[in-house]
Amino acid sequence: MSGAPIDLYFDFISPFAHLAWWRAPAIAARHGRTLRPRPVLFAALLGHYGHLGPAEIGPKRAYIFKQVLRRAAERGLPLRPPPAHPFNPLLALRIAGDPTLDAEAQRRVIGALFNATWGGGPGIDDPATVARILDAVGVDGHALVAAAGEAPAQARLRAKTPAASSSGATTASTTSTASSPATIRSTRRRSPPGPISRPPPSAAAAEPRARQPLARRARGRKALVKVCFSTTMPPSRWRRSIPSQTAPRP
C-alpha cells in the first residue's frame, strides 16, 4: 500500500472507538493506507489536557449514549452496553498493544475485545474472562493476560499518552497520519462546494404562517413532538432500538 499509515488511537471504554474500529480498516483500504492500532488510556489523555471525561458530566453522558446508539443503527452495527460502565480497560489495552502479536492476530484480538465490551459480551475487566475470549480467536489468552500484568506492558501503555497527544489525539477514537490528525466521523457524504439548487417553494410553503389552516399547523406540532420524543428515548428502550446482527469483520 502507498501513503503514510493511519494510526488509530483508541480505548475500549469509548463506544465511539467501537464504531471507529469496525469502520477504519475499510477507510484505510480505500485510500491505499495501512492501519496501525494504537491503544491508549483515555483517562490519561483527559489528565494530560486537564478536563473531565464525557461520562463524568450527567447530561453529556446521556446525550453521548443516545448519539452512539443512533450512529450504530445507521451503520447496521449492533451495540450493547457493557455489564458496567465505566470499567477498568487497562488489561485489555495492554494486551491489544502486545508486541508479540502479528498484525492479523492483533486485529482479531482487538475485534474480540470490542465485541466483548460493546457487542453484548461479558466485559473485559476480568482476567479469566479475557483469557477465554482470546483463546476463542486463536491466541494464547493465558500467556497474554500474564504478560499484561508485567512491568514492560505497563510501561508501553504509559508511553502511548505523550505519543498520542503529540499526534493531536484528544478523544478515544482518533486517527492520525504523518501529516494530519483527525477524528473518524460520520459516513455521510458532504455536498461539494458551490451553489445549491432547490425546487421552487410550493404555494402552501409560501403562504404566510398566520394564514395557514389551523389543522396544518397542528400536524406540524405533532411531527415536532415525535422528533423530540425520538431524541429523548429513555434508557429502558435503548436495547429494543438496536439491530441484532453480529458485528462485521474488518
List keywords for this structure.
alpha+beta; globular; 4-stranded mixed β-sheet; disordered C terminus; 250 residues
Q: What form results from the Cα inertia axes?
A: globular
Structural class by helix and strand composition: alpha+beta
Which percent bin holds the helix content? Answer: 40-55%
Question: Count the strands?
Answer: 4
**CA(first)-CA(last) distance:** 17 Å
Uncertain spans: 177-250
Mean pLDDT: 74
Strand residue percentage: 5-15%
Largest sheet descriptor: 4 strands, mixed
Q: Secondary-structure element sequence?
A: EHEHHHHHHHEEHH
Order of neighbouring strands in the sheet with most strands: 2-1-3-4
> What is the C-alpha radius of gyration, as a whole number of Å?
22 Å
Number of helices: 10
Describe the structure.
With 250 residues, the protein is of the alpha+beta class. Helices cover 47% and strands 7% of the residues. The protein has 10 helices and 4 strands, in the order βαβαααααααββαα. Strand 3 (173-176) and strand 4 form a beta hairpin. It is globular. Mean pLDDT is 74; it is low at 177-250.
Layout of helices and strands:
Elements: E1 6-10, H1 15-30, E2 35-39, H2 42-49, H3 58-74, H4 90-96, H5 103-118, H6 127-135, H7 141-148, H8 151-166, E3 173-176, E4 181-183, H9 203-206, H10 214-230
Parallel strand pairs: 1-2
Antiparallel strand pairs: 1-3, 3-4
Helix pairs in contact: 1-5, 4-7, 6-7
Question: Gist?
Answer:
It contains ten helices and four strands. By secondary structure, it is an alpha+beta fold.
